Amino acid sequence: MNKMKNTWKNTTIRLWMAVALVLSVIAGNMEHTVAVEGQTLSTGVFAYLDVGQGNAELIRTKRQAVLIDTGKKSAYADLKKQLKKLGVKKIQTMVVTHPDADHMESADEVIKDYKVKKIFMPKVQSTTLCYKRMMQAIADHNVKVAHPKAGTTIKLTSSCKAKVLSADAGSDTNEASIVMRAVYGKRSFLYMGDATARVESQILAAGYKTASDIYLMSHHGSDTANGVLFVKKALASKYKTAVISVGAGNSYGHPVPNVVRRAQKYADHLYRTDEKGCIVAKTDGNSLRFSFQTIRHTTYQAGSTRNAVKSKKNTKKTKVKGKSKVVYTTNTGKKYHRAGCRYLKKSKIRIKLSEAKAQGLTPCSICCPS
Asked: Are residues 232 and 259 in the same domain?
């Protein structure tokens, strides 16, 4: 009798062990919910959108979406296509790293089309039309504005926070860029805006942690930033992935070859939007999985800053008034600028807008002259 009881007991134990094993396997294979450090995280999406010579990044966790920069107005149709493909209908929060056109020219459209509730942005202001349009859209749609400070932590979504490493570090818009390190579970993501080498030095001197699984390199791979020590420390992580957001064949020469070599030296992977298109990283807070979505650009040309198509009505109006708009160029530049643009520090040549266009010059994506 005791032998039968023991046999039944052993069988029951083995049965429950088998059930537990099956349940653990099922749980291990679940893609959408994984326990990390005491909390359950859904699959988060961290995407680096292909907007040509500009920046736009997406963070999506559960049903919450955050857009970091928007790219240029001429690439807005491409931005919308990518957001749609990634399942984004509303954007609760925006981060405008700094008020340069290649980072925020579509901000007014995004605010209107995606019902943005809150914007993080530096205090530095701009006189450009796109900045004025953004501020008007903020007022029209009652968007809450916050100016984060270095050393503070901001809440991007309910499960993703970011440490601000720099903001308003100078009066120059690039130096004023919001630099932040976002964390989702055990994975980390560094966003640089167009921060300069001086800002990088300040971040390192402050002792902030920069090591991140995905490091979005500053200023489209320019050598005005991305110093050796900073790149090395930023890539001292598990996944060691560098990303450069850049337009194919751009007239700035981005990314600079020595910056590319530097990234290749310290990164296990270097992905560029001009080569890979939209770069999508998915994570459960532990592992990272990458995929790429090729974008067929139909709304912009490399190096362009705005849609060049104007209505016949506006064109005729300009001719009737006989006005000749004045812009500025440099001795060696291929672009024309507004007065006061930082690219005019070394040389400044006054020229009619019509002549600049006739010479094949294109508008600066920073000062947005036309």
From this structure: yes
- CA 194/CA 221 separation, integer angstroms: 9
> What sections of 49-165 are H helices per DSSP?
76-85, 101-104, 107-114, 129-140
Query: What element of type H or E holds 306?
Result: none
Same-domain pairing of 284 and 325: no
CA distance 224 to 203: 15
pTM, rounded to two decimals: 0.76
pLDDT-flagged residues of the chain (< 50):
21-37, 299-323
**Of 323, 350, 346, nearest to 338 (Cα)?**
350
- 23 Cβ partners below 8 Å, 6+ apart? none
| Whether residue 318 is found in the same domain as residue 269 | no
Q: Write phi, then psi, for 41 (nearest 5 degrees).
A: -110, 140
Closest to 336 (Cα-Cα) out of 352, 314, 319, 318: 352
Residue holding tokens 């000062």?
367
In a domain, 223, yes or no: yes
Identify whether 68 is part of a domain. yes
Q: Give the integer Cα–Cα distance in Å for 76 and 351.
A: 30
DSSP three-state, residue 162: strand
pLDDT, residue 33, reads: 43
d(CA 155, CA 93) in angstroms, rounded, equals 10
Domain count, the chain: 2
